[in-house]
Amino acid sequence: MGYDSFGLPAENAAIDEGVNPEEWTNLNIDIVRNQLKRIGLSYDWTREIHSHDPNYFKWDQWFFLKMFEKDLAYREDSYINWCPQCATVLANEQVQGGHCWRCNSEVEQKFLTQWFLKIRSYAEELLNGLNNVDWPEKVKVMQRNWIGRSEGSIIKFPIVGEERTIDIFTTRADTLYGVTFMVFAPEHPWVREWVKGTEYEKDFEIFYTDVMKQNKFERTDVEVDKKGMFIGKYAINPMTKEKVPIYIGNFIIYEYGAGA
Ligand SMILES: [Zn+2]
């Protein structure tokens, strides 16, 4: 039996109660353990673990350091779901209809420097491993989509009037001739730079605020209406050398691939 008892939720609860987080957490675990015993569960109670126990989390730290040494843990700026009330980051699954699952506050998108694990380095292994597990096909499909394809090409699209390129991963480089427009995630940091001081700025702010109310699952759901807006900027199709207009769209997510 184990308790996922470490972190901000426990800390916030302790602040509300005005007690030491360790005492508060241990007290609650005692209550839960008693309840589990009273409903007759026969776990091996000598093998109980608590994720707030230093004897347990020293191994989390050990794993993290090993990954850091191997360059598999790194820092990068990215948008995250943020609950201002809980003062904590939320996973996509913890955002329900744009609200925090714990306190129902409206969830904000915050641009923060965060730690990432380079799971992409294991994409091939993870994909192959799915062939060896006895999971429902539906779950395997979800996992495959989440891991993403590991073989393909990165195509560099020059941006008109700039040195930098937007580098798009594709498994279908043969369709490049057909590219006639490009769509960026509204939260892509370049977009805000581009519209600043232009006639598109005001409409962009309205569009952006609107999209941020949807969570990432809603935004990519096929059932949800696709919305887009031209932002007055162009990229170059590297095959045809033609100018292609850049739009922003609610169905493009910044953290997925290049965010465009
Ligand atoms: Zn909250």
UniProtKB/TrEMBL annotation:
<dbReference type="GO" id="GO:0005829">
    <property type="term" value="C:cytosol"/>
</dbReference>
<dbReference type="InterPro" id="IPR015413">
    <property type="entry name" value="Methionyl/Leucyl_tRNA_Synth"/>
</dbReference>
<comment type="similarity">
    <text>Belongs to the class-I aminoacyl-tRNA synthetase family.</text>
</comment>
<dbReference type="InterPro" id="IPR025709">
    <property type="entry name" value="Leu_tRNA-synth_edit"/>
</dbReference>
<dbReference type="GO" id="GO:0006429">
    <property type="term" value="P:leucyl-tRNA aminoacylation"/>
</dbReference>
<dbReference type="InterPro" id="IPR009008">
    <property type="entry name" value="Val/Leu/Ile-tRNA-synth_edit"/>
</dbReference>
<dbReference type="InterPro" id="IPR002302">
    <property type="entry name" value="Leu-tRNA-ligase"/>
</dbReference>
<feature type="domain" description="Methionyl/Leucyl tRNA synthetase">
    <location>
        <begin position="2"/>
        <end position="107"/>
    </location>
</feature>
<dbReference type="Pfam" id="PF09334">
    <property type="entry name" value="tRNA-synt_1g"/>
</dbReference>
<keyword id="KW-0436">Ligase</keyword>
<keyword id="KW-0067">ATP-binding</keyword>
<dbReference type="GO" id="GO:0002161">
    <property type="term" value="F:aminoacyl-tRNA deacylase activity"/>
</dbReference>
<protein>
    <recommendedName>
        <fullName>leucine--tRNA ligase</fullName>
        <ecNumber>6.1.1.4</ecNumber>
    </recommendedName>
</protein>
<dbReference type="GO" id="GO:0005524">
    <property type="term" value="F:ATP binding"/>
</dbReference>
<dbReference type="InterPro" id="IPR014729">
    <property type="entry name" value="Rossmann-like_a/b/a_fold"/>
</dbReference>
<dbReference type="Pfam" id="PF13603">
    <property type="entry name" value="tRNA-synt_1_2"/>
</dbReference>
<keyword id="KW-0648">Protein biosynthesis</keyword>
<feature type="domain" description="Leucyl-tRNA synthetase editing">
    <location>
        <begin position="144"/>
        <end position="260"/>
    </location>
</feature>
<keyword id="KW-0547">Nucleotide-binding</keyword>
<keyword id="KW-0030">Aminoacyl-tRNA synthetase</keyword>
<dbReference type="GO" id="GO:0004823">
    <property type="term" value="F:leucine-tRNA ligase activity"/>
</dbReference>
